[in-house]
Amino acid sequence: MPKKNSDLILFLAAASFYALLIFFVPHAFSELPSLLSEKIKVMIPAGVSAQRAAAMIQEAGAVESARALSRAMSDIGIDRALKPGIYTLFRSTPVNVARQMAKAKPEIYKFTIIPGSSCRDLAALFDEYDGGRELFEEAINDKTNFHAAVRDHLQDDPHARMIFLMPDTYFVAPGKNAAADLVKMSSKLWYERIGSEIPADTSKNIFSDTGILASLIEGEAKADDERPVLAGIFLRRLQKKMRLQSCATVIYAWDERGVKKKNLTYDDLKIASPYNTYINKGLPPAPICIPSAASWLAALHPAKSDYLFFFAGKNGRHVFSKSYQEHLKKQKEAGL
Predict the structure, then answer these.
(1) Which residues lie below 8 Å from residue 207, measured CB to CB, with a gap of 6+?
(2) Which label site among 15, 137, 187, 310 has the fewest CB atoms less than 10 Å from its CB?
(3) Does domain 31-103 have CATH number 3.40.630.30?
């Protein structure tokens, strides 16, 4: 075979091998870098942009160009659905690192805020993490962790700020910023779901009172259709200077003393507490729990009715009355 043809064949073979090595192998075996390099852990916080995440991955040493990685993340379609958490990556090309991220299952914390939870319940979610409860207290104390639109309405009492946390399930990156991230995400969701329903010129005190009312509704109601009715009753009682007589506030008052109550006796209703609306007029000084969106909307849009009294029936639904005499009669008929 002529030497010229031999050289051409060798060149073509080398070029093919190079193309195979550079283009096909990385595409077909995106996990190959794991066999060739050490693990690199990168923590991506909740809510960061793809550009910032790419920069953090570059700083960790998993890729050379943050710009190229950000572009690759966009091409794959993970730039707008980037999950927070700790990623285990292997140094490679931007395209391969983006593919690793698409396939990865980052280490993550899952927190569920349940409607009706107290601030202590929420803090307890962090008990299994070292120093978690203290970090939660710090997070809720820091106004800057709350959505910017609600900061001017925050009360000085950090526990009163729980009304701005929207019940839902949240996924946040592990670490010392987990509690702060939870507050940021949940207060942002609160604003998205409830904030638009509240007039911009609402005063701080009215804002707070509406949240406290929503927490009472949450403590009393099980059925969504009853929430606006209960809101209307509480507001009518306030207008008439009547005591609200919410059993939920009494249960909260006992809970403040470390005593769990499900069924209340007449003696239980005598507990000396600013939260006991059987002995104190007006709203309690702070919310008794985290309200759901349904309770917030009921407080903002109460139903108009002639009802002034209510009690919970054996089926969990409430029985409403216009007068005290009717209230007593219906209780007797219900066997209470």
Answers:
(1) 153, 198
(2) 15
(3) no
Query: Which residues, in sequence order, are CB contacts of 229 under 8 Å at separation 6+?
Result: 303, 305, 307, 310, 318, 320
Report how far residue 53's alpha carbon sits from residue 31's, in angstroms, rounded to the nearest whole number.
Answer: 20
Tell me how far the alpha carbon of residue 108 is from its chain's centroid. 15
Instruction: Find how far residue 266's CA is from the centre of its chain.
Output: 37
Which parts of the chain are beta strand (E)? 39-44, 85-90, 109-112, 169-172, 309-312, 318-321
Task: Report which of 186, 194, 151, 155 is spatially closest to residue 295, judged by C-alpha positions.
Answer: 194
Bridge partners of residue 320, in order along the sequence = 310
| SS3 assignment, position 178 | helix
pLDDT tens-digit series, residues 161-180: 999 999 999 988 888 888 99
Instruction: Specify the residue for token string 């670490």.
Output: 175
3-state SS of the chain: helix, strand, coil percent to 5?
55, 10, 40
- Cβ neighbours for 278, distance < 8 A, ≥ 6 positions apart: 243, 245, 249, 250, 269, 270
Nearby residues of 171 by Cβ (< 8 Å), 6 or more positions away? 46, 83, 84, 85, 108, 109, 110, 111
Who has greater pLDDT, 188 or 205? 188
The Cα 69–Cα 53 span in angstroms is 9
Q: pLDDT value at position 318? A: 92
d(CA 133, CA 140): 11
257/63 Cα distance (integer angstroms): 55
Show the tokens assigned to 261: 């109550």
Residue 12 predicted with pLDDT over 70: no
pLDDT at 210 over 90: yes
